[in-house]
Design a protein that fits this description.
The complex is a heterodimer of chains A (189) and B (119).
Chain A (H helix, E strand, L loop, with lengths): L5 H22 L3 H21 L3 H25 L3 H4 L5 H23 L9 H6 L6 H8 L13 H21 L4 H7 L1
Chain B lengths: L15 H21 L3 H22 L13 H32 L13
Classes of the chains: A mainly alpha (189), B mainly alpha (119).
Chain lengths: 189, 119
């Protein structure tokens, strides 16, 4: 048994973190603990993205997802954390049905993934020979519409603009929806 | 059946199938979260898990370290993953605003209480 192939070691480490905390999110009944487990699970997913060579996407996962979206969720948890909503049990029948359907789906997906030979990984010598490239500049050029990595593929300028306008609309809409309703509280008092 | 020799699990590189399996676990956990949680914010966390499983698949199919043939998404996978991250942030903002609105008007965050539209 020759030396350990360290990317595989870190893959198993990060995938263990990701999967175990995802299961913890599922089985936990405390909403505050669920939020904390979700942070760890998504951070493990960011590590997996770094391992797959997607350095920029992994960094964005950490910044936007773990640092932004989940902080938003945790604020939601804090704003609604009355005593009776922190612990909410799921009915036992839901668990049985859910685990039957989910287990069957999981079995089919993993079986299908491992039944394709080319998806099972390269030889070690071939994997070690792949040159390391950084992805920030090609991603930026792809978002601007001029692909430098594969010139025959289309750029992403139009989806980039659509997502930008969509984000603006969503932020205005979310601020409008979540604003404090002063008139109603005054009337009810 | 799975052709997973455990002896060289640490000495051989992993492939797309391993990443897709992790994505499948995240997806199933998220879908079960959406189906079984009664807290609206728990449902939102399930959605985040599902989107992350999809993201992991996009990144894996675009990675040149996991498969070497020509049918590789290349950078397209990473670009789509970026769009998914941005759309997930937008979706979380709107869904959280709706959940807070529901909490303000019903004084509850239990999704089973949101049944005005049932006939």
């Amino acid at each position: 048994m020759e030396g350990i192939y360290w990317p595989s070691f870190f893959f198993w480490l990060f995938s263990g973190i990701t999967c175990s905390f995802a299961v913890a999110v599922l089985v936990s009944t405390n909403i505050v603990r669920m939020a904390f487990y979700l942070v760890l699970s998504l951070a493990g997913a960011a590590g997996l993205m770094f391992l797959a060579g997607a350095d920029f996407v992994g960094a964005m996962q950490l910044l936007i997802y773990v640092g932004g979206t989940l902080v938003l969720l945790i604020f939601g948890v804090m704003l609604t954390s009355q005593e009776r909503f922190v612990e909410m049990k799921t009915m036992a029948g839901d668990w049985v049905k859910g685990f039957l359907a989910g287990g069957a789906l999981l079995f089919v997906l993993i079986y299908a993934a491992f039944s394709i030979p080319v998806w099972r990984g390269m030889e070690r010598t071939a994997a070690e020979a792949v040159p390391v490239t950084h992805t920030v500049t090609p991603i930026a050029m792809g978002l601007l519409g001029a692909r430098t990595d594969a010139p025959d593929r289309p750029g992403y300028l139009l989806p980039f603009e659509i997502v930008s306008v969509h984000l603006l609309v969503v932020l205005i809409g979310a601020a409008y929806l979540a604003r404090a309703k002063r008139t109603r509280t005054i009337e009810s008092n | 059946m799975f052709h997973l020799p455990l002896a060289n699990i640490l000495t051989e590189p992993v492939g797309v199938a391993h990443y897709v399996s992790v994505g499948a676990i995240l997806f199933v956990c998220g879908a079960l979260c959406m189906a079984t949680k009664r807290n609206a914010l728990g449902v939102l966390m399930g959605i985040e898990l599902v989107l992350n499983g999809a993201n992991l698949n996009f990144v894996a199919f675009g990675s040149k370290y996991l498969r070497s043939d020509v049918h590789n998404l290349g950078l397209d996978g990473q670009l789509i993953a970026l769009f998914v991250i941005v759309l997930a942030a937008a979706e979380a903002a709107v869904a959280l605003a709706i959940a807070l609105n529901f909490y303000n008007s019903h004084d509850s965050i239990d999704v089973d209480r949101a049944d005005q539209l049932s006939g």
